[in-house]
Amino acid sequence: MVSVRELGLPQREASRAELPERVTIWEVGARDGLQNEQAIVGLDTKLEFLDRLAAAGLGTLEATSFVHPKWVPQLADADDLLAKLERREGVRYPVLVPNERGLDRALALGVESIAIFGSATETFARKNLNRSFDEQFAMFEPVVRRARHEGLQVRGYLSMCFGDPWEGAVPVDQVVAAGRRLLDMGCFQLSLGDTIGVATPGHVEAVLAAFPEVDSLAVHFHDTYGQALSNTLAALRCGVTTVDSSAGGLGGCPYAKAATGNLATEDLVWMLDGVGVEHGADLDSLVSTSVWMAERLGRPSPSRVVKALTGS
Ligand code: HMG
Ligand code: MG
Q1: Which ranges carry the Pyruvate carboxyltransferase domain (predicted)?
Q2: How close is the Cα of 90 to the center of ligand 2, in Å?
Q3: What global pTM score does this model have?
Q4: CATH number, position 168
Q5: Separation CA 285–CA 305 (nearest Å)
Q6: Is 60 in contact with 92 (CB distance < 8 Å)?
Q7: pLDDT tens digits along 184-201
Q8: Residue 238 annotated in active site
């Protein structure tokens, strides 16, 4: 493996115009990254993965999901994982919670930060949550109310913001109306999901411009069509300062077959280093963590940066 420090790259030449000083990386590898894996990853491996990611300097690690274990068997160990997780100071460990049953489980384990996850489209709401478009909000409303009453931080995800494999194009107005409902419910942040990775930068700009409160927005790009990094740069230029990514580019949604891996954290970090945006993560540690995880999963990481630095 070549060390980034030895290479002295990437070279910082780009103009920082219109870019934020600092970006928060919302690392989803242990949740979005692993949820689609067919072979069950052991609990000890998941715990070590999270610890390595924290040691690499990432401050937000989405740890798991309190969903129905039959719906996502890979994360059926969520309660055990939280019980055994050694939390590092200064690191937050949000978990996905779809309903009150999930919230009960999360509260019992001392979770401080949760994310509800809605859909901008009717079809995906039914496929992912077994609820109609309107029913999903009815399911989330008591979760958000109770979670906030308990002092929890609540994030809202919105999937299929840039296209849906069953419904095709998703109008920007529809995305904004659905996102508004999650923000108005009390979510501190709305993460706009390109679940199937079809967005392009102009589309990203159009969706972001349609929301008045860019400070409350995050972006969640899957890299199916290789556009995740360009889309991220477009989002940063629009004022977004929280970016979701997954170490090694792991990922996918079991209920959206067209979804592949998330934007790789290493690819994101390489770009942020190049354009001089702070993020707090150590690229060499991330790469060695992804190589370690790839060995456990039995296949190489799809991240271009991991491949380049490891010659794989
Ligand atoms: P349902 O079958 O409609 O559930 O599933 P229900 O409310 O009818 O309850 C049926 C039984 O399940 C009950 O038990 C409940 O207690 C139990 P019974 O009374 O029959 O014995 N149950 C639960 N048990 C444990 N934990 C729970 C839970 N809830 C109910 N939380 C449900 C509805 C929402 C639960 C189901 O559809 C589900 O779990 N869906 C999750 C799907 C999922 O995790 N998808 C991947 C995450 S989303 C994503 O990846 C996209 C994202 O990355 C952004 C992007 O890329 O766009 C976030
Ligand atoms: Mg996702």
Answers
A1: 23-287
A2: 24
A3: 0.96
A4: 3.20.20.70
A5: 13
A6: yes
A7: 999 999 999 999 999 999
A8: no
